[in-house]
Fold this protein.
Amino acid sequence: MSSTPHELRPIKIVVTGVLKAGKSTAISKIAESAISIDRWRTTVGLDYGYTQLGIYEIHVFGTPGHDRFSFMREILGKGAAGIMLVVDSTRPEFFDKAVEMLDQIGVNAPCVVLANKQDLPDALPPERVKEELVKLGLSPETPVIGTVATRGEGVKEALQKLLEMIAKPRKPVNTRL
Ligand SMILES: Nc1nc2c(ncn2[C@@H]2O[C@H](COP(=O)(O)OP(=O)(O)O)[C@@H](O)[C@H]2O)c(=O)[nH]1
Ligand SMILES: [Mg+2]
């Protein structure tokens, strides 16, 4: 069965992470079209990207890294079907902050982590990134995928994984339904 545009399901995905982790770069690789509101190469407002994959019409929103925009994280998180957390695998000192940002999104949606900058020699491998993040409170079921956002490596795979998690039926709140 082929799907017509009418059957496309619009969903919102939020991309979060600290400054310079690679969020804008990752979004530009995911999306057919992407915009970034930035100044001096730093995202000050937000990133937005749009793409279609399978049955989904995907609207990707990147949260701004600067703390003075922290209020935006909760706003952007509203109604999100999934979350992508981008971390710079060479900067474990920021992992704590990354997990904190995940909390600030404030939605209990499926999440994947992009262990980005795997091309750099001092990058922690994805398994090590996961170990560290779990120590800081990340749920151990969260997939952590190695990526090189500048080359687009692993980014689409991470999105695909997230979509699989979104598609998985979750226990209904009302068990009689
Ligand atoms: N070496 C390397 N650099 C990256 C990678 N992803 C992003 N960068 C660089 O890291 C910097 C910050 O990326 P950006 O996407 O603006 O981060 P954001 O602040 O999270 O949106 C830029 O100079 C990017 O070119 C990667 O996978 N490898
Ligand atoms: Mg940015």
User: Anything to note?
Assistant: DSSP finds five helices and seven strands in the chain.
